[in-house]
UniProtKB/TrEMBL annotation:
Name of the protein in its database record: ABC transmembrane type-1 domain-containing protein
Keyword Ribosomal protein appears in the UniProt entry: no
PANTHER family: D,D-DIPEPTIDE TRANSPORT SYSTEM PERMEASE PROTEIN DDPC-RELATED, OLIGOPEPTIDE TRANSPORT SYSTEM PERMEASE PROTEIN APPC
Pfam families found in the cross-reference section: BPD_transp_1 (PF00528), OppC_N (PF12911)
Coiled-coil regions listed in the entry: none
UniProt-annotated location(s): Cell membrane
InterPro entries: BP-dependent_transpt_permease (IPR050366), MetI-like (IPR000515), MetI-like_sf (IPR035906), OppC_N (IPR025966)
Amino acid sequence: MENPAKKYTNKKEFYRQFKKKSNAYELWLRFMKNKTALLGLFIFCAIVLLAIGAPLLASYENDVIRLDVANRLQSPGNGHLLGTDEMGRDIFARLVFGARISLVVGISSVAVALLIGGTLGAISGFYGGIIDSVIMRIMDVFLCLPDVLLALAIIATFGVSKVNLVISIGLSFTPKFSRIVRSVVLGVRGSEYIEAARSIGAKDGHIILHHALVNCMGPIIVQVTLYVASAILTISGLSFLGLGIQAPAPEWGNMLASGRAFMRDEAYIVMAPGLAIFFTILSLNLLGDGLRDTLDPRLKH
């Protein structure tokens, strides 16, 4: 039988790879023991699959944006799984296509916040001193403004579009990510492996990316899942107010806004997008809590 260690250049490399795989497997086993986290992962994966498969489930031109007044306000059934809205459009079709918009804009917004805020937070935490003070005071100014108010101000200035929506929500979350990344970088800045990297002449950018941030990914990943949920909720709120995704494009918030006038007699119109928002936020929060418990080194034993 072939010795698996021969695939590696030396025994140290073999044991390093084995330990790395073992740690990942141990984390996976701990995650699998968390039933609520698995429930959150299952619900979120189901929503993602529905969003990806939306073109296979319905036609965008015929079911999502085409007006069919003759079939308006049809109750669930009768050829329409969740009924039709006030314009005769299929609610299920709009729901799954709306999931695509909410997920893409939500994840993109958090990516913008993580890129900008993470970069500023890493620089602030790694260098400290006057650089830390200047960056954090600027972030404090933005933290004084509520997320939705800051997003509203940006959208009102630059106009309503998907790109502006991503940028506005991303910038509103930037101060929070900068503080999160700064705190985790501060915690490892004085570690021995950072000093060892400095002693062999590694550049600061290399140390931040390949040593400081890599060893802080646990808390960052957890916060990303939680802030994706917050971003989706913010998108829905802005669309409900008429400052997010504009009709006829489907988005859960504008579906709630257009259906609120009919919720007394046709409650299914608002129940569908409302439950979609609820289950998406719930799944991401359950998943984030599960990841936190899995990646927390204090809970290993």
